[in-house]
Amino acid sequence: MSAVTRLFLSSTRPTGALKFIRATFATQPGSKEHIESLIKDKKLVVFMKGTPDAPQCGFSNAVVQILRFHGVNEFDSYNVLQDENVRQGIKDYSNWPTIPQVYINGEFIGGTDIMIEMHKNGELIEELEKIGIRSDLLDNPDKQA
């Protein structure tokens, strides 16, 4: 009998066994709880293919370039190509089928198309200000394309 089975069977209170099972399995990569732990209390998170320094697809690269255009070089990122569970888990969590996915203050913002639109209409500057990041475009208006 495995240690897990013994622990489960030796529990005299069903709530103890249930707590053990939840603690063991709830934090599996890709679970809702795991995804929440990756975005919780973080200002800016990008789930992408590759890394900011080496994006593995054009859409992920576009999001990184938009952020850099605004002077945002520091943000949390997760390479979904390293873990299929996280890759599928983030899609399930957001109910959004594509990667990359951008989260600001724990809130799902969108993917590449949304980021491009927010950049064009100025909403991205406002969202960045909400998390204490001043866009470079405010200081360099000639930089706008």
Outline the structure in words.
This protein has 145 residues and is of the alpha+beta class. The chain folds into two domains: 1-28, no CATH class; 31-143, Glutaredoxin (3-Layer(aba) Sandwich). The protein is 50% helix and 14% strand. The chain is built from eight helices and six strands. The strands form two sheets. A four-stranded mixed beta sheet has the order 4-1-5-6. Strands 2-3 form a two-stranded antiparallel ribbon. α4 (58-69) runs parallel beside α6 (112-121). The protein starts with a helix and ends in a 6-residue tail after the last helix. 24% of the residues are buried.
List keywords for this structure.
two-stranded antiparallel sheet; alpha+beta; 6 strands; 145 residues; Glutaredoxin; 50% helix; 8 helices
Summary, kept brief:
50% of the residues lie in helices and 14% in strands.
At the first level of CATH, the class of the largest domain is Alpha Beta
Number of strands: 6
Order of strands side by side in the largest beta sheet? 4-1-5-6
In whole angstroms, the N-to-C terminal distance is 66 Å
Helix content: 40-55%
Listing every helix as H and every strand as E from the N terminus to the C terminus, the arrangement reads HHHEEEHEHEEHHH
Q: How many domain regions?
A: 2
> Quick one: overall form?
globular
Beta-strand portion reads 5-15%
Number of helices: 8
Largest sheet: 4 strands, mixed
Q: Give the full name of the CATH homologous superfamily of the largest domain.
A: Glutaredoxin
Low-confidence stretches: none
Query: Class by helix and strand content?
Result: alpha+beta
**CA gyration radius, whole angstroms:** 19 Å
Could you say what the CATH topology of the largest domain is called? Glutaredoxin
Estimate the mean pLDDT confidence: 88
